[in-house]
């Protein structure tokens, strides 16, 4: 998330409240944390929030999707925020292991984020088991926006206020129809998508009262890039769709089955087939 403030809201959702409280409890410790959740739920914002509540003197940020310019030698204590740990190459994992094995004051505290279940990557031998145990001492799982019904209205109002400040506006409000349109959407992109939709509505609104026609959704989910090609068999298309949906949901089978429109039993049977084929 780009501008979410965990102190600005009274969180009522039980799971999110527990995640926040555990994060605050661990902020002053040196325990390595792994924040897991779907794209757009606010993993990095929570990680930065925990860092801000700690006594750590400095923050280093490593983006595993674009790590080429990161200088491991300059890390000197503090906190290392590792974004998208599940995307770390084996070579990058090796560099991280060297940091983990430091025994002096230059060893940082580690807070990582991941969309996928690292344990599944360990089983597939795509992630080092020893590094996983070092970086994931405590797991924090962020809930989806769709599951935070009790917080939805407050989140919308907060984003609306921030969007107005960003664009030099004030006194804006949502009509009942506009809010109903927001509330009826399933938010596959989570809070990041909500930020985008509300900010666009603030920009497009013809008056201070935002009507339903200013609430516009993207038809395509950018996080699910399906590499289909003409000539592929239906079974191969089905396999790729299932596996990529699981990746999108951080290996949450219940959520994946819902998105695919199949039963959890059918999904389980398909995964057993792929395991027998050696795909998993």
UniProtKB/TrEMBL annotation:
Pfam families reported for this sequence: AAA_lid_14, HTH_8, Sigma54_activ_2
Domain Sigma-54 factor interaction: 9-203
Keyword terms: ATP-binding, DNA-binding, Nucleotide-binding, Transcription, Transcription regulation
InterPro entries: AAA_lid_NorR (IPR058031), Homeodomain-like_sf (IPR009057), HTH_Fis (IPR002197), P-loop_NTPase (IPR027417), Sigma_54_int (IPR002078), Sigma_54_int_dom_CS (IPR025944)
Membrane-spanning intervals of the chain: none
Entry annotated with the keyword Lipid metabolism: no
Taxonomy, superkingdom: Bacteria
Molecular function GO labels: ATP binding; sequence-specific DNA binding
A single GO BP: regulation of DNA-templated transcription
Keyword DNA-binding among record annotations: yes
Name of the protein: Transcriptional regulator
UniProt source species: Bdellovibrio bacteriovorus
Lineage: Bacteria, Pseudomonadati, Bdellovibrionota, Bdellovibrionia, Bdellovibrionales
């Amino acid at each position: 998330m780009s501008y979410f403030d965990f102190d600005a809201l009274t969180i009522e959702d039980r799971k999110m409240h527990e995640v926040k409280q555990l994060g605050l409890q661990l902020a002053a410790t040196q325990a390595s944390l792994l924040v897991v959740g779907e794209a757009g739920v606010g993993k990095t914002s929570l990680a930065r929030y925990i860092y801000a509540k700690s006594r750590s003197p400095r923050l280093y940020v490593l983006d595993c999707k674009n790590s080429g310019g990161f200088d491991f030698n300059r890390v000197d204590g503090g906190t290392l925020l590792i974004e998208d740990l599940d995307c770390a190459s084996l070579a990058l994992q090796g560099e991280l292991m060297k940091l983990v094995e430091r025994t002096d004051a230059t060893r940082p505290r580690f807070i990582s984020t991941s969309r996928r279940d690292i344990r599944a990557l360990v089983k597939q031998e795509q992630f080092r088991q020893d590094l996983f145990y070092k970086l994931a001492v405590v797991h924090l799982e962020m809930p989806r926006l769709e599951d935070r019904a009790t917080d939805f209205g407050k989140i919308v109002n907060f984003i609306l206020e921030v969007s107005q400040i960003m664009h030099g506006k004030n006194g804006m409000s949502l009509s009942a129809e506009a809010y109903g349109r927001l509330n009826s959407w399933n938010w596959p992109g989570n809070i990041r998508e909500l930020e985008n939709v509300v900010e666009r509505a603030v920009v497009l609104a013809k008056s201070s009262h935002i009507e339903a026609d200013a609430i516009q959704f993207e038809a395509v989910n950018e996080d699910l890039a399906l590499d289909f090609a003409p000539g592929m068999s239906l079974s191969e298309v089905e396999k790729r769709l299932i596996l990529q949906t699981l990746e999108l949901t951080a290996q949450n089978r219940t959520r994946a089955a819902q998105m695919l429109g199949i039963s959890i039993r059918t999904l389980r049977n398909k995964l057993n087939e792929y395991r027998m084929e050696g795909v998993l």
